[in-house]
Design brief:
9-stranded antiparallel sheet; mainly beta; 7 helices; 865 residues; elongated; 8% helix
Length: 865
């Protein structure tokens, strides 16, 4: 009864407000009562004429502390509008990214919350569950879906309507509508029986993998737009049999699954897509919609509490409707006012605010006078940002806080100032003038930096080849060529379309910075990033950062296939010691060679030189043929978490995996039988069932103290699906007595056996070691580990000889010449050092000419050999 009474009073209040001459925003300050709860802390700000921001805290009926953030405006009486925005359709960016990029496009952003629910799978992260219209265009859609939408008219007024757009797709006069499935959605596993539409909103290439067998029709747009009530028309300009087609701004691409016959389609054929609203009562609203977004949970519609009537309601306390969680909502009042509300939830701090279930959301929003209430994506995506002016934002990342950037989301709902309202004075940029006696230099050369990933995850390098343990590879001034990629700086970001932050310490204040350049950026396959989403900041102290720096982008050819340089020319000269670059991927990794920062400096200032290549930063080499494997045939112990490994009895763990791969003799890892890569059952693999994250240790007894140890290897490790995991890093320690061990520092290199599931790890010591016992320690990444061999190599022995002293008697005379003549006649053999000493004329052979030269030297006819 209390809920019904509350709803009735709220609706009555909404009616009274609607018929009043002026409506006052619901503002809650300390001591006010909201839905029977007393506000214990509240503050309010006017963000702009008619746009009010309110933050208030209260304890609800369960005793939970709640924090709510509301923004309210009436588009009929203020210059503010709702704007559905995406930095790139179906890729996922934070709402800060969206706000900053929207401002770069000329929009004045005052506030924002996140929008639609979306996929969080790595393969299609950021793809919205539903669809949306942005700037009048059907940007993303599930073709044929019948759903609720929040529709925003050009005048900013909002309606919540049921919408089911109808589509007609024709290709060369043939109706293909029945196969038409998605608009601008990244699909993890594209169907062979469906057709998908892509345009430049999703990027400059089709998101379908180039390995997919299909037909992609690249179409030049000739008329119309992809808008409800319109028809977009085009002609086929290219036909590709793989995914990954390039998309220009005036083009769209149709992915056609391989089971759909396109053999009759030719270049020049006509293609058209007609869209219109099929629900008659929604037709005018959807045709007129400037923006619209899928409304997955409409809690209140036309003043009716749909949740109270059973919509979305469950009895499961862990179900979405009953969870006390973070939420993002949009409400519409009877007078046309629009309310954005965000409530806090599963905050990480102990005893923090708790958020609300659906029933309480309805209670709060109807208390605010809303007759339409939509629950958008919340949980870890929940965020609200408020403009502080000059491109800066105050933000609350209620879900994933990370380093202050929030989670990447499908799209954002912005509050923007109507561009048709009275314009504000525009900022003008100062002309940049060069000072006499200065020159442009890369002031970031050899400077240190840090790399972090935005959000809660951490970036990692894809391999030791591309890694950077010393935080200088990215600024060392060295680049790769067409034939080599060893200098590539490669960061693998966990999950597709992530962000990384690079902070470069220029080591002193630079007062005339002109641009930031990213060298040799890979722009194909999974190695990709969105140049339009680069954000650059400056700082004097590395803690307080400027507003994002405005720039123009210049792309420069490199001569390397699939790579370009990107130059971000600052519109105003900058002064800073620290430069922060925030850059996002559109694939699973991001690859480039170098980041440079150019500034005007005094010509007389000493120039920074490119540092010589440090061998310690390179990956491990392979042992040469002259190196000696001193572990061959030696005894060892192999333990898992300090335990001896048992037989292959399934009741025991750790244990040998099976009869074929168990320790048949105590020297299986040192017997020299490495086996055939890819042949699991050839008897040369030692396999142990250990359990994930188990510490594995192999201690080899070399039998005596051995000098000059340089290499340790683990050969033929199996990497097999979810079972076997290879080792990509290990530590090696040394001992003379088997009791006290000293860890060695090593360069690492992980190499794959071509065409197989086998890998080898090589550790090359930075300083040669002396030991009897060699311990290799590593973690088992999966529950099985399979190894082929462990080797310990000493460095190649030094070969010493004296030129001409063939018999090594420390005298060069006719006896040495005689030995050469015997060798030349086939009467004797020479040792390696004897042959090296005998080749006195340096022609690579030992013969009578060398003997003659030694005799001349012995006779005093020549002074030296």
């Amino acid at each position: 009864m209390k809920r019904k009474l509350t709803v009735f009073l709220s609706l009555l209040l909404a009616f009274v407000l609607a018929v009043s001459p002026a409506t006052v925003s619901a503002i809650y300050l300390t001591g006010d009562v909201v839905a029977d709860y007393t506000v214990i802390d509240g503050e309010t700000h006017t963000l702009g004429e008619g746009l009010v921001y309110n933050e208030f805290t209260f304890n609800d009926s369960t005793g939970r502390e709640q924090i709510c953030f509301t923004m309210e405006f009436n588009p009929k009486t203020s210059p503010f509008r709702s704007y559905v925005y995406h930095t790139q359709a179906s890729h996922g960016y934070t709402i800060v990214d969206d706000a900053i990029n929207a401002q770069k496009e000329g929009l004045e952003v005052y506030a924002a919350i996140n929008g639609d629910f979306f996929s969080m799978n790595a393969s299609d992260y950021g793809t919205p569950i539903g669809g949306y219209i942005s700037a009048g265009k059907m940007t993303v859609a599930n073709v044929g879906s019948d759903e609720f939408y929040l529709a925003i008219a050009p005048d900013g007024t909002a309606d919540v309507v049921r919408s089911c757009p109808g589509y007609v797709l024709t290709i060369d006069g043939v109706d293909r509508t029945s196969a038409f499935k998605y608009i601008n959605k990244r699909i993890a596993s594209p169907s062979a029986d469906q057709i998908y539409y892509f345009d430049s909103d999703i990027g400059d290439v089709s998101p379908i993998s180039v390995s997919n067998s299909c037909t992609e029709l690249v179409c030049d747009i000739t008329a119309g737009t992809l808008s409800i009530g319109d028809t977009i028309s085009g002609t086929v300009s290219a036909i590709n049999t793989k995914g990954g087609s390039e998309i220009a701004d005036n083009q769209f691409v149709l992915y056609v699954g391989k089971n759909i016959d396109m053999s009759s389609v030719a270049i020049g054929d006509a293609v058209s897509i007609a869209i219109d609203e099929s629900i008659e009562e929604s037709k005018e609203i959807m045709r007129n919609a400037e923006h619209a977004i899928y409304a997955r949970y409409v809690l209140v519609h036309d003043g009716v509490d749909r949740y109270a009537e059973g919509e979305y309601k469950t009895t499961d306390p862990e179900a979405m409707d009953n969870l006390y969680a973070q939420r993002c909502l949009v409400g519409v009042k009877e007078d046309g006012s629009i309310v954005y509300m965000v409530c806090d939830g599963r905050r990480l701090t102990a005893g923090g605010p708790n958020g609300m279930p659906f029933a309480q959301l309805v209670e709060m929003m109807t208390e605010l006078g809303c007759t339409e209430v939509i629950n958008f994506d919340g949980g870890g995506s929940t965020a609200v940002i408020i403009s502080e002016g000059d491109g800066k934002f105050n933000h609350e990342f209620i879900g994933e806080r990370g380093d202050g950037t929030g989670r990447r989301v499908a799209n954002s709902i912005l509050i923007v100032r109507d561009p048709n309202a009275d314009p504000k004075p525009q900022k003008t940029y100062k002309a940049i003038e060069d000072t006499e006696g200065t020159e442009l230099r890369n002031v970031a050369l050899n400077k240190p930096y840090t790399v972090t990933q935005c959000g809660i995850m951490t970036p990692k390098y894809s391999s030791s080849v591309f890694g950077d343990d010393f935080n200088i590879k990215m600024t060392n001034g060295r680049y790769r060529s067409e034939s080599t990629d060893e200098e590539r700086h490669s960061v693998v970001l966990l999950g597709t379309t992530a962000q990384a932050s690079y902070v470069i310490d220029l080591e002193k204040q630079q007062n005339d910075l002109r641009n930031l350049t990213i060298k040799t950026v890979m722009q194909s396959g999974v190695n990709n990033f969105n140049a339009n989403n680069v954000i650059i900041y400056g700082s004097d102290d590395g803690m307080n950062w400027s507003a994002s720096i405005d720039y123009d982008i210049e792309k420069v050819a490199t001569g390397i296939t699939g790579a370009k340089d990107f130059v971000f020319n600052f519109k105003e000269a900058q002064s800073a010691r620290y430069i922060k670059l925030v850059v996002a991927t559109t694939g699973s990794s991001m690859c480039f060679d170098e980041i440079e920062v150019y500034g005007m400096v005094d010509k007389n200032e000493p120039k920074e030189e490119i540092l010589p290549e440090d061998p310690n930063t390179l990956p491990a080499e392979e042992p040469s043929e002259d190196c000696v494997n001193v572990a061959l045939g030696k005894d060892y112990t192999f333990t898992c978490n300090g335990q001896e490994i048992a037989d292959h009895d399934a009741s025991t763990e750790p244990r040998y995996y099976n009869v074929g791969t168990k320790e048949a003799s105590p020297k299986k890892l040192t017997n020299g039988k490495i086996g055939t890569a890819g042949n699991f059952s050839d008897g040369a693999t030692l396999a142990v069932r250990a359990g994930a994250d188990s510490l594995m240790e192999i201690i080899i007894d070399l039998g005596e103290v051995v000098e000059d140890i340089e290499f340790v290897q683990i050969l033929n490790m199996i990497n097999n699906g979810a079972s076997f995991g290879h080792v990509d890093t290990a530590t090696v320690s040394f001992s003379e007595d088997g009791e006290t061990y000293t860890e060695g520092s090593a360069r690492e290199a992980l190499s794959a056996k071509s065409g197989t599931q086998y890998y080898s790890l090589t550790l090359q010591l930075r300083e040669l070691a002396s030991a009897r016992y060699v311990k290799v320690s590593f973690n088992c990444t999966k529950f099985l580990i399979g190894l082929g061999e462990v080797t310990v190599f000493t460095t190649a022995p030094e070969i010493t000889y004296t030129l001409g002293d063939v018999n090594n008697d420390e005298i060069i005379d006719n006896l040495d010449a005689a030995k050469i003549l015997k060798y030349d006649a086939g009467l004797i053999d020479l040792e390696e050092t004897e042959a090296l000493a005998g080749d006195v004329n340096g022609d690579g052979t030992v013969d009578n000419l060398d003997a003659a030269k030694i005799l001349k030297y012995d006779a005093g006819l020549i002074d030296s050999l």
